[in-house]
């Protein structure tokens, strides 16, 4: 009968009614990442916006890292985990173009941090190039087809324009039949003044300099066409070589770049290690391929005389600061050296002799890289921003290391060094260090909003210890901080990180852009402390008093008071046998005490009772309770009575009726003073024991759980139970017999009774104790555990071993549990029923593979998780209610609109000045009459950057090899005839539409119209000179005197706006007049039909 009653009570304890159901639903969970610092280890490709000062880094897993200035960083994550093979900015426009391995062309908005357009290309994209200053770009594919695409920012669409160059067209002009399936491996837009040409490189070695406007090849070279002579002089270890003419043969192209600022010379790298320089300044379109091209236009460069050389993978050219012409500069080469020469980057200082065209290498430097090469990108020497002119090259190496190489240092190195060397490039340093120094532990803390906390932390950041200012020479300055005003900003979240060198850094993590507050060193000024530089192992903070405790691997516990005090302070150094006191000045008074009680790693720290008590758990299993008012130890565990296994977790709770809970057959003999509130310390050790320490009496006992289980964490969670459920739980726990493993051990320490705490003690007896193990979750009644019973009321097993857990609250009640498994799976479970609500993975959210060291720096406060993986730090939100970080206004803007507008204005000022002084551009001033549209477009293109883009768009709007119909902006086909190209086009600006028509007879209207035709219009056209029969060509001065106006940038913008409004009004009038004419024509036809019928019925004599 007794056994049956026990089983019945056990079923009652396990009944789900006791714990209730969690109120967490899948719709409440949303995994999102808005905070990201550091460079991913899978970084592979670079892009740079020289105007905005932004650097983009593409990865092998579909992510794009964007880095600006002042700690502004962003991450763009593609849904597909595929490598990016092409990445470029639409410069100064706030958009980024990426192409993945599956040929998805994606446009990213830097303002919204998201993708705004995507287009899938049917064939394999092998080359890509953005036309500078525009939203146009070239696409080259494996079939040899060159296509043109345009991004319409207003509509958010990617459009393929009619202009394209198939391989068959190149076959025809080059008389080569092998291009039909030859991929395009490189596309380069020629720099001004010949910006209407594009260099197309085919894999077989054929090079075509194509004139966009004239739709013909300006220069064709390579692919068995050329004989060449080597004419390269080296002042370094390579001797002067002059070789006899040799046949070029097929050479597979692997890299190319422009090697002059005016686009007259380009360099081509080949798979066999050769580098050829092609000079196009003497080329002419009518001499293409009439026999072999002259060898004086091509020079070959060899980095090594070895027969087996590496392919030339990358070529980049930068103009020289002291260049005497447009061709002198530095050539950056990766590859081309002999096989097995190691991973290094070669920099050549090249000069072209004036007159003879001979190429000389006056300096060479082989830079040994800190890792395997990934990519390189050069920075422009000047630009609109006026950045540091010495900054030259960003070099990306694996895994995810970015270095900046200074232009001046490279020149100095080339003039001094012999052989390969490791040049000290400036390494990118993230705002939050993760590997140098190595981060060991971290803590994310929510602060209650308050002016006092804000004031104290801000004052602390202004004068405490050491402030990190970052790299002063770093050229990235882009991005705009959050739009939230600093006047209303309060600090409500801190991120605290501890490092292997013993230092601690504190950051304001309120907004997605973290800001540095201070760094706390392990050393105390003026005092020699042993083991002060030991790695930090544990951190805890009391948010009500701004007290910070830091433990290290050698057993030291640092106690900091972050609140400012102007009084003279003392520093206390407490050991097992001594208590030293040393005065400290107020400005260095943040470290109040250091405790060195045991030589064992600190595993856990927990403040209690508003920061007046601190529990310290050691790796050896010992537990100390410190009084932070008297700075002394008030409790120390005894290893002979337990506490001999490493501490895993600790938690303080309050209970007002602890004596009533302990009144069992085993506890009746225990006499203890009655206290309104007792502090209970729960301690979980690695051998699955739970110790309970009475903070007032210092008595403790433990409960042995399953010995074979490896615990991870422990939580005491509140639970709202119905009265019937609460009574059932109380009856079940009190009726059970006490197990043998329950012990009560009294400590002889006599301490003062702790002060009464406002927390309700009844909450502890109604709460649950959640123990998280590697293989399962186990839920206990806290009341039963205090009484020594180890029966679970809920148990859930993991499919994969768990390594880390954290709880989060909603409305001050624990309602969710986050579990990270060793395979990278993240589970969200509801509390207290432990039901699975949603799951995801580190790979799908962050593109991270699970690593064991991730757990060391995992921290969570609420539904925000901060984690570090290598050189990456991210904050991940799991709860959809986190509106603070979800609000787009809180995110830093990666595109500076004010800077973009200023840059556009600066670019347009010289163009406007030239336009005022140009006679060809003044043709637009003739308001009445017809215009030759082609001539006007050409004038605009050669003068104004925006006009050149408009010219290109007009050219790209039709197919270049036939009289195909042009494409209107709305992609509608316009009617045209083969002779339309030679006819004059009527512009909308040339149409005059009168709002009112005089009410006159037909004869009078005809007379007035004839007079207008013969008089007014003729006078307007010929300026009153009616005796001439042909138009007179007026001088530039006459045109300027009549039509020129004093303009500036703002007036030009207003005129353009007014012109657009006038055009819109004219179009509306045309539409209305067309409708009126159509209606009038219908009325006239109806009257005519009625007249015909009436006349048919009449006889001839009636007429």
Low-confidence runs: 1-18, 227-247, 285-294, 382-389, 463-467, 665-674, 721-729, 731-761, 914-944, 963-1029, 1099-1103
What would you call the structural class?
alpha+beta
**Helical proportion, percent range:** 10-25%
Largest sheet entry: 6 strands, mixed
Indicate the proportion of strand residues: 25-35%
Mean of pLDDT? 75
Count all strands and give the number: 62
* End-to-end Cα distance: 130 Å
Shape descriptor: globular
**Number of helices, where a helix is a run of at least 4 consecutive DSSP H or I residues:** 16
- Rg over CA atoms, rounded to whole Å, is 40 Å
Give the oligomeric state of the chains in this entry, treating copies of one chain as homo and distinct chains as hetero. Answer: single chain
Keywords: Coiled coil, Cytoplasm, Exocytosis
Family: Belongs to the WD repeat L(2)GL family.
Protein name: V-SNARE coiled-coil homology domain-containing protein
GO molecular function: GTPase activator activity; myosin II binding; syntaxin binding
Structure notes:
The protein is of the alpha+beta class and 1103 residues long. Among the domains are: 42-120, Thrombin, subunit H (Beta Barrel), CATH 2.40.10; 897-1072, no CATH class. The protein contains 16 helices and 62 strands. The strands form 15 sheets. Strands 19, 25, 26, 27, 28 and 32 form a six-stranded mixed sheet that branches. It has a six-stranded mixed sheet with strand order 38-39-40-43-41-42, with no helix packed on it. A four-stranded antiparallel sheet has the order 1-62-61-60, with no helix packed on it. A hairpin with a 4-residue loop joins β12 and β13. The longest helix has 49 residues, at 1049-1097. It is globular. The N and C termini lie far apart (130 Å). The N terminus and C terminus are likely disordered. One of its GO terms (molecular function) is GTPase activator activity. Residues 1038-1102 form the V-SNARE coiled-coil homology domain.
